[in-house]
Write a structure and sequence with these properties.
about 55 residues; mainly alpha; 3 helices; about 75% helix
Amino acid sequence: MTSSRLDTFRTMVSRSPANAVARFGLANELIKAELWAEAAEHLRLYLASYDDDGN
């Protein structure tokens, strides 16, 4: 099941790289699949793009 979810999130991120929710979802699926390096990269990109507004 993780593979198809990975494919779905990869497609979402490729179509909309600025979509923080899709990128976070992809990172989570990569963690589940134990693809640590790729997950770390997407988490870095997510954190860099997410506007915290001080919260």
